[in-house]
Amino acid sequence: MGEMNTEWIVVSLGMVAIYGLLVGSFLNAWVWRVHTHRPIAKGRSMCPHCKTTLKWYELIPVLSWLGLKGKCRTCHKPISWQYPAVELANSALWVSLALYFNPATSMAWLQLVIWLFLGSLLLAALVYDARWMLLPDAFVIPATVLSIGLAVLSVVDSGSTADLWPRLIATALFAGIFFIIWYASGGSWIGDGDIWLAAIMGLVLTGVQLVVAIFVAFNLGAIVGLSLIALHKKTRKSTIAFGPFLIIGLFAGLFFGEALLNWYLGIFV
Ligand SMILES: [Zn+2]
User: How confident is the model at residue 76 (pLDDT cuts 50, 70, 90)?
Assistant: First the structure.
């Protein structure tokens, strides 16, 4: 790899990071508009407290929040740390995806672009579910469509459907189990959105990645759930949203699934 090549990679990743921040900023606005039932395309961004329309210099990801010290310029009410956190998270996610998929062919480019959109949709779903215990169709349905696209792309890429059948069976099994839990609990243990998430995980992950994703999701959910009970923030009867754990599990499985399995198998060699 030549010097030019290395520089080009650094510039490209820098661009991905900046676009990731901008799209993260858009996600914040979109999550809020879905919650308040406003159309995404209409009206300018405004302060949720005093409804003042924000100026361009108040809309710069992360920097505006830092410059305004986390307060609205007009009404001085606090602006949640979640706004810059979502911007940074989306940027980090995009850079991670770009590094992981390392697009060398045009097919790989398409795969990466679909993953960037899917990643942002899942991040929006995570934020919404964590705040309001609901996985809105506005995020979950397009994410499912993109996941089907990724599964089709893997068939086109490999030129055979050999890889597709185990993936479809895993999807049907995993989503089926979630459907049974949802149905049996009358929607009180998990929501119907979690069934969509289970299907997405089955469609986009390999077998190994899926196992790691499920392991991470359930353990993380248990640890956080028990911690909240211990801290008396929740009782055993109250529920916490499961979607965020599934989404964190999905990305843990994607990025670390194969490496974790190799490490685990290495112990016994
Ligand atoms: Zn304000």
Answer: very high
Of 102, 124, 142, which one is at a domain's C-terminal end? Answer: 102
pLDDT score of 197: 97
The residues with which 71 forms a beta bridge, in sequence order, are: 78
What is the domain range of residue 74? Answer: 1-102
Identify which has the larger pLDDT, 55 or 176: 176
Distance from the CA of 20 to the center of ligand 1, in angstroms? 26
pLDDT at 1 over 50: no
Interval 48-70 mean pLDDT: 89
What distance in angstroms lies between residue 40's CA and the mean position of ligand 1's atoms? 20
- pLDDT value, residue 269: 65
Distance, CA 28 to ligand 1 centroid (Å)? Answer: 16
From the list 78, 75, 41, 44, the residue with the least C-alpha distance to 59 is: 44
Contact criterion met (CB below 8 Å) for 101 and 115: yes
Are 141 and 56 contained in the same domain?
no
Give yes or no: residues 222 and 134 share one domain: yes
Using the mean position of ligand 1's atoms as its centre, give its distance from the Cα of residue 31 in Å: 18
Distance CA 123, CA 108 (A): 22
Contact 228, 240 (CB under 8 A): yes
The verdict on 165 and 193 lying in the same domain is yes
